[in-house]
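Protocol step 4 of 6: structure prediction from sequence.
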Amino acid sequence: MDKSIPQILFVPAGWIDPVDKMSDDTLQRCSVALGEWGTGQYQYMVLSGGIFRPPAVQTRPAAEIMREWFMQKGVDSAKILCEGYSRDTFENVSHGLPIIEEKFDDFQLTLITHSQHALRCVITFRAYGIRVHVRSVSGTSSFKLFLKECLFFLYHWYDPRGTKWLAQRNRRQRTFAVEA
């Protein structure tokens, strides 16, 4: 890694459990990111995730829930950039990049996510001309999840920016009005 270029961790949310609690996969990603942060080689972290579960499960953006966790662990809030509108992997990237590009002309990203998710993220980042380093989170997955991820991977290959009908349909199903 080029130390003269800002080093940024990018942590997309996994799932959120009732009510407004990080699921095991999100917590695993955050724990690995905290370990990376502790090395001192990163200047900022970007947390990405909006409200993508029904109101009975989620009332706050995942990025905000993750931010609170990092702050409780001692990370300076000024070093945490949050993107709280994304509903899927495509939007993690498309909504997260402008936050970074507004602050930096040049940067290097290290993506923290599970290996099965990393492939899809990398495809989407590359569709925007961004290369990322990947720090995979290890974890076990079922055969059913493996098959689903294979299908998701193929879809990301076909639609790397998530603009076609299936990605749009998925986002519509993950759009919930939150009462104030």
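Step 5 (inspection) to follow. The chain has a mean pLDDT of 93.
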